[in-house]
């Protein structure tokens, strides 16, 4: 097993900062605010995975992406995008649920959150984020 643990370039992952800025600045279209396209941190993580593969041969079918809190929000956004090689996405206590613009259909996605924790997104927002990937109703 090989573990790659990148960190955000700023105080949080840039996709989190982008979504929070849009969502909490009075944006009228929240679905658009919570839609993920690409980010500089995403490019850094994908590049780090590519660099790692040059050192230690990795199997694309066994690459998982895991994040906690803001990192979970980032993992959902990046990991559920169709263009990425991740085979499984695990989001532990995401602060926001961001929907990939082009989701990976049927990519296994595990989201863990506290049942009574108000800070984390509602089940409906998490389900909206993950539905394209795992066929949740």
Keywords:
137 residues; alpha/beta; 3-stranded parallel beta sheet; two-stranded parallel ribbon; 5 helices; globular; disordered C terminus
Can you tell me about this structure?
Helix content is 38%, strand content 13%. The chain is α/β, with parallel strands linked by helices. The chain has a three-stranded parallel beta sheet with strand order 2-3-5. Strand 2 (64-68), helix 4 and strand 3 form a beta-alpha-beta unit.
Low-pLDDT sequence parts: 132-137
DSSP summary, beta strand count: 5
Q: Count of helices?
A: 5
Beta-strand level of the residues, as a percent range?
5-15%
* Biggest sheet overview: 3 strands, parallel
H/E topology pattern: HHEHEHEEEH
Structural class: alpha/beta
Distance from first to last alpha carbon: 34 Å
Spatially, the strands of the biggest sheet line up as: 2-3-5
* Helix content class: 25-40%
How would you summarize the topology of this molecule?
Blueprint: H1 14-23, H2 30-33, E1 35-36, H3 40-55, E2 64-68, H4 70-79, E3 88-92, E4 99-100, E5 109-112, H5 123-134
């Amino acid at each position: 097993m090989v573990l790659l643990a990148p960190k955000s370039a700023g105080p949080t992952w840039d996709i989190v900062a982008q979504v929070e800025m849009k969502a909490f600045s009075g944006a009228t279209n929240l679905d658009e605010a919570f839609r993920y396209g690409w980010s500089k941190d995403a490019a850094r993580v994908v590049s780090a995975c590519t660099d790692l593969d040059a050192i230690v041969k990795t199997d694309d079918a066994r690459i998982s992406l895991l994040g906690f809190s803001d990192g979970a929000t980032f993992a959902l956004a990046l990991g559920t995008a169709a263009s990425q090689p991740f085979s499984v996405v695990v989001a532990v206590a995401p602060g926001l649920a961001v929907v990939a613009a082009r989701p990976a259909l049927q990519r296994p996605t595990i989201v863990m959150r506290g049942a009574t924790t108000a800070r984390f997104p509602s089940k409906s927002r998490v389900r909206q984020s993950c539905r394209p990937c795992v066929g949740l109703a």
